[in-house]
Amino acid sequence: MQAWQVHQNGEPVTAMRLQEVDRPTPGDGQVLLKVRAANINFPDALMCRGHYQVRPPLPFTPGVEICGETEDGRRVIATPALPYGGFAEYAVADAAALLPAPDALDDAEAAALHIGYQTGWFGLHRRARLEAGETLLVHAAAGGVGSAAVQLGKAAGATVIGVVGDADKAAVARGLGCDVVIDRRSEDVIGAVKEATGGRGADVIYDPVGGEAYTQSTKVVAFEGRIVVVGFASGSIPSAALNHALVKNYGILGLHWGLYNTKNPKLVLHCHEQLTGLAARGAIKPLVSERVPLSGAAAAVQRVADGVTTGRIAVMPALQNGAAA
Fold first, then answer.
1. Which of 215, 221, 199, 230 is nearest to 124 (CA)?
2. pTM to 2 decimals?
């Protein structure tokens, strides 16, 4: 089979090599899956660079989120068991962690319903306890993680403010349903949020960016507001000023979704059931901005690493020359 492998850490476009390899052999409690779609996540780029908290042994195949097919024909969502990731024709996953792919979504959309939407659901509902009528501020609102949070916030009845990095991404954020969109490159984020909220600030802030975005968050969080720290796509990890959180009376909430798979897996299943219901009603629909053949995976991962994409890019092993095989 064909699979992308990383033999030496570096930028995705140079570190990833498309090779002919043997199909992986599942271990105890694992299953072999035919990859129908593998969505690209920022951690894939970080793993190529050797900068992620999970460092699979070299060589490894990236791809942490797939829609796959079991040997008995079931269509499932899975997080592949590294080093046999999803940017390949076949991957391996833990049988106990398989989730049914929603009928309402195609393969690429179903794969994208997993990590980003689970993270959004846990962040907004489990950690921040977002309520209808509250104001939600989402940084990087047009990205894979941010777009999921925008849709989940709207589905929960929140007013959503999206912060983006350019005019094209602003158009995407509006299409996702943001009530207010702020272009951080051409607007004063702090002033724009205060104007949009009448000076009150945002009740919940969803931050997958870190760095300057987190600093802005501390200046626009409302009384009894909650900042949900999801990641550090900017590459800068801020230090929280706890005296500021005390004086302004807001909470800083960390979210490591992957821990729920071991600490409370029943909640992951419950979340998937909630997401499947929302998808069936049309309340959420993953934004898949591009579908590329397996041969285009490395270049696509590099674009995600460079921050120039919107929504999710799906790697489709069955695509050949832009058409389904």
1. 230
2. 0.92
